[in-house]
């Protein structure tokens, strides 16, 4: 419609209509065309069918295209409210919204409000609600709309606009989004009770939760959970409440998972259950907080109450149960899933197989795999490459790489899965671990033939296998080959190589690799530095070790206890007290607390230097720091006092171990004390310590007996010697050349060569059948006699193996004036 023509027709409508009554124009004349046009557009015949909404909307919008100051309200009235009819709410809503500008929409709303009730039939008040909703939507498009929302609401109240549910929900939601939750609650509270349905309740609950007003939201929820409530909770309510409370960024009071579980139970009584993502998240949060039993209960409650539970929620619980190796409940959950019709998916089987493999239950994992492939009561999930790799890795770690290799063949032939880099890495590592390095290399070559990408893990796996089996040069050549092919090493690569060369004391090659790592600007970690520092320190190359320490700090890493301890030990062996002091100060300044190894190292250094006063001060400080002295601590001090000849001080420390520290002494401590006592000719005290060892269950070794035999020889306590020779036989403690030197010299002088021969053959010497032995065909129990020969000794023509009998003297000794001397 032409706008100017419409405005003219409106101005002269009455004369033209009067003319039509007095004069009938000829058909097709200009007057007929004009009057027909005006009549059909402005004064529709009430007997004709009502105008189509889309046509009316188009006509009104064309009329309202100009600025609102130029609107022709007469024509507008004729279009909308002629013959006591009124437009539909649908028409009013779309006309208002399609006006575009909020100012036009408000003007149109004002026009509607002035005509509703005066020119419209009863029940037309919904037009205002529709117009107001459109005004609201247009206003919300503006950047500063939040300042106008309350004004609009007050305008609506002033005009007695009866908000419908959609308009009220939009207003409440918009106010909440604008951070005006008080105003949103006010609008909600002022709504007619009949409008406060479930939807509007859900909107206000979401607004309150988003603004952190948790307790207010829960109060609104309580109204809906009331058994007498007119409008109750629905699925959206549950998703809004449980989903919001589970969010990490939830504002306001943090609601405990126990409270959330209780809410799930309350919802369940109304037949409302969390959807799968929310239930899965709740189970995950409970498990992450160590409440696996709570997760178990809530999941089973939902299933028992008839809630729809999917595999994802069960998978979350299975994962947590697997971490705790709770295979009993994992099995029970699988049975429950079957009972309620929850089909396990690929992830379900993956979780089961992964946990079984990690716990070493490979056969059970393979059983699950076979059931999965064959279908579990109608449920079939085709295994993918991840599940195959999990099983292959488990088999290889368990030392069963051949089975892993067979599984890779099945992977190709039956399920059409293509092995990937991980598959081959697992197999190569598996064969390396069982010592079949060549098989690992064959797999590597096959991997290259098939075009499967190599990665640094492949490189490191092969290098580790070669180095573990002592093939360091081959490992180095292989590394160089890979570098030429463009595969660069990482921190793990260099750590493997540097550690291996340090272990064989090839420090020069280790340093060469370290320099190569630095020049290649390879990303490193602290481990490679710590490893090299340890190797250099143990080798006594303290200047090189200090250089590596400086590089470690340049790389942004820090020294740890182990590195400080090996450096202190290295400087101790080089007798560098200034450097030791420097290390201790740096250690404390960097916040690394000395541990028992640090203190024991210092005690050993001070004791060796004869500075016992300082050593005991270190021991006192060690205790003050709350570090419990170990057997090494006391052994260090006892050894030092024994070397210093102060056996009394050593014995006091020994007694303090039992009375104050309650730390049992070991064989090394007894050996030091017995040796020192025998040197002091205090054999009686040494024999007491031998009995004390027996009482405390500390097993003597060859050095213990050697020390005692020396003391017994000096005091010619022959019968005691025979008793302890029997004790050596009883405990299968083999004599060494020192034992034989002591006993041969002594017993040959006193004419007891026969007993010596019996001792060498493994027979008791103090009596025919020593206590604790069962004689079988004349052979003592505890020794395996073969043709009259004692185990570990070869007797030839009555001569002890390893000795050449010459005039009754054992081989290996030169008899000079009756005394055997080591040749």
From TrEMBL:
SUPFAM superfamilies: HCP-like (SSF81901)
Family, as annotated: Belongs to the PPR family. P subfamily.
Name of the protein in its database record: Putative tetratricopeptide-like helical domain-containing protein
PROSITE patterns with a match to the protein in the record: PPR
Example GO molecular function: mRNA binding
Keyword Cell inner membrane listed: no
Organism: Rosa chinensis (China rose)
Record's keyword terms, sorted: Repeat
PPR repeat spans: 197-231, 310-344, 345-375, 384-419, 420-454, 455-489, 490-524, 525-559, 560-594, 595-629, 630-664, 666-700, 701-735
Pfam families: PPR, PPR_1, PPR_2
Gene3D superfamilies: Tetratricopeptide repeat domain (1.25.40.10)
UniProt-listed PANTHER family: PENTATRICOPEPTIDE REPEAT-CONTAINING PROTEIN 4, MITOCHONDRIAL-RELATED (PTHR47938:SF35), RESPIRATORY COMPLEX I CHAPERONE (CIA84), PUTATIVE (AFU_ORTHOLOGUE AFUA_2G06020)-RELATED (PTHR47938)
